[in-house]
Design goal:
Layout: H1 10-22, H2 27-34, H3 38-51, H4 68-73
Helix pairs in contact: 1-3, 2-3
GO molecular function: DNA binding; transposase activity
GO biological process, one term: DNA transposition
Pfam families: HTH_Tnp_1
């Protein structure tokens, strides 16, 4: 039997990736919490890193935290 494909919003994917990258929980735990397959979430994280040059969200290239104003103005 074929599985039904779910279309997740960009906002949902971005928030899921942020939960993995900003937190200390493994992908499998976040995926289980959100009801997403862990391979799917791994793919989203990999794609995010590829699109953003491997820079973690909320961190400047010098390793410092971005200000709230910088984060809000980017989107």
């Amino acid at each position: 039997m074929a599985r039904r494909r779910v279309a997740y919003s960009r906002e949902f994917k971005d928030e899921a990736v942020r939960m993995v990258l900003d937190g200390d929980r493994p992908v499998t735990h976040v995926a289980r919490e959100l009801g997403v397959h862990d391979t799917t979430l791994h793919n989203w994280v990999r794609a995010w890193r590829r699109e953003h040059g491997g820079v973690e969200p909320g961190v400047n290239s010098d390793g410092g935290e971005k200000s709230v104003r910088e984060l809000e103005s980017c989107c």
